[in-house]
Amino acid sequence: AQKVTQAQTEISVVEKEDVTLDCVYETRDTTYYLFWYKQPPSGELVFLIRRNSFDEQNEISGRYSWNFQKSTSSFNFTITASQVVDSAVYFCALSEAGRDDKIIFGKGTRLHILP
Amino acid sequence: DVKVTQSSRYLVKRTGEKVFLECVQDMDHENMFWYRQDPGLGLRLIYFSYDVKMKEKGDIPEGYSVSREKKERFSLILESASTNQTSMYLCASTRQGMRQFFGPGTRLTVL
After folding, report:
1. Rg (CA), chain B
2. Within 10 A of A88 (CB to CB), how many other CB atoms are there?
3. What pLDDT score was predicted for residue A59?
4. Interfacial residues of B (vs A; Cβ cutoff 8 Å)
5. What pLDDT, in 10s, does the model give residues A72-94?
């Protein structure tokens, strides 16, 4: 069965600190996609990244970076020099077997950035 | 700019009422999805559709039905709303090989 686990339910850090959100997944597929979405207080899910299982290169986009490790089935997300606007719920997700359009979400991590 | 719209941001209904949540996308996507989001439970898939007039049950279809008469529109129907259906409802669309695009969500309260 496929599963996404975000063990951190809620995290609070002071502004400018770095923070890492953990994501561990389970799948028997060799081909799959991993995603991160951000949900700010407004409610709309904002797409952050999609990573193909064959591409284990880490990715950096501004203050955001992602560490994909197949050996540990993890796809962790780090925010460097956090800002109050980063406060949101963050979801990690995995595409379902054989379907890159249907995805399974983790339960989310609520991130509070304190001024 | 791609867009998924939902008919209401906030909705208050009474127990037993029939409720329609509408979702429209302008990207000519084949696939559309309805999720509900509850604190601590993440997003759970209710129903999805791969084409007009096609529908498939997700993980929690009980108490819901859907309609897809046109490619761009996917409706979620609560035949007889109950208080345990108070939730945030999110619609998404995509096509094969793409990531999902989400609407702004509808916060439904059933009194």
Report:
1. 13
2. 20
3. 87
4. 9, 31, 33, 35, 40-45, 48, 88, 90, 92, 94-105, 107
5. 999 999 999 999 999 999 999 99
pLDDT digit string (tens) for A57-77? Answer: 888 899 999 999 999 999 999
Which of helix, strand or coil describes residue B2? coil
B107 residue type, one letter? R
Contact residues, chain B, for A96 at CB < 8 Å: none
- Record: contact B100-A101, CB cut-off 8 A: yes
The pLDDT assigned to A93 comes to 96
User: Helix or strand or coil: residue A72?
Assistant: helix
Cβ contacts (< 8 Å) between B99 and chain A: which residues? 33, 35, 47, 50
B40 contacts on A by Cβ (under 8 Å): 9, 107
DSSP character for B83? G
Tokens of B41: 């439970």
Give me Rg for the CA atoms of chain A: 14
